[in-house]
User: What shape does this take?
Amino acid sequence: MNPTTAEMPMSIHEQLNDSTFLRACRREPTNHTPIWFMRQAGRYMPEYRAIRERHSMLEVIQTPELAAEVTLQPINAFGFDAAIIFSDILPPLIGMGLDVQFVKGEGPVISNPLRNTRDIDRLGTPPANETMNGTLEAISIVAPELASRGVPLIGFAGAPFTLACYSIEGRGSKLFETPKKMMFREPAAWRRLMDKLVIVVGDYLLEQVKRGASALQVFDSWAGVLSAADYERYVLPFNRKLFEKIAATGVPTINFSTGTSSYLDRVASAGGHVVGVDWRMPLDQAWNLIGTDRAIQGNLEPVALFAPWRELRAHVDAVLHAANGRPGHIFNLGHGILPETPMDTVRRVIEYVHEQTESQT
Ligand code: CP3
Assistant: This one.
């Protein structure tokens, strides 16, 4: 007899409690350093491109069986220690009333971006059960399958600031000047928007755990466009509220951002059992800033995967050397894997990290 969805997560948590990834999140010793890559399912894999030839990005995300299949692709191909559910940070905005499209060669585009306070007031905050059912169903399908192989599934969402950036700018940008203008000119409307995003993202993350996610990562990919003082004033209170809310799930949470080296301590103060860091600052320095009572994730330069092995190995060694075998290191890239990355190199790095850190307990 199949267990009900409500019963499943308990057994999943029990099955995976001793996995290297979850042990590292809790800063417990592991028999090797766990490794996974942000955006590990994607265009560098021919099996992913084959699915994308037949289906649009949103179709893959919204069809549970397809999203589940793509989530498994990097787990089938490599020895990663964790999986991440296949989706994107932007689909939750669709349920709020924004028209999100993934345009070939351009990335995500929102055709009705937020232009004024009235647009913000009109945004809905429907529950994830109603609007994100495709991804939640994909989690219900793939989490038990992964658990039977000993691999935890990471659920994720975009952080309020990074989502606000896309909602206002309507597309990617280097400096996100339009959102910053609104933030400075209309601080009350900005707070209403951030509050709404905390509600939507918080509910979505809680629901992912109910469906079987073993950990949660919050992507604040564009936080680095802000000064430390503006981060503290316009972003930190909302991230803090979000991390408080999701801490109630009991699963480890990962607080990831890029470009924030100069105020990583403030970023970390928002919460998260694990702090994800980009490639700009050595891990030991980052760890000093956030404190060794937190686990750390990172931080190989993604472009180093294109270097000859000797050069790449030196980069990997530098990350491992900076982590110094201290419990609580999860090996990852400093940002997402790039589309043309050679698969053999990915395989080699995973094997090398496992070999180099074997039996460090
Ligand atoms: O990590 C995983 O394997 C899970 C899947 C995942 C995707 N996007 C799939 C994706 C995750 C975790 C994301 C997060 C995401 N999406 C972020 C935060 C992480 C980061 O990289 O900073 C951001 C900012 C986005 C927004 C986004 N989605 C952009 C800017 C783009 C275009 C750039 C690009 O790589 O094409 C996307 C599209 C996207 N999201 C793709 C994938 C696999 C490529 C879509 C395709 O198949 O053409």
About this structure: The chain has a mean pLDDT of 96. The CA atoms of residues 34 and 213 lie 17 Å apart. The two ends are 40 Å apart (CA to CA).
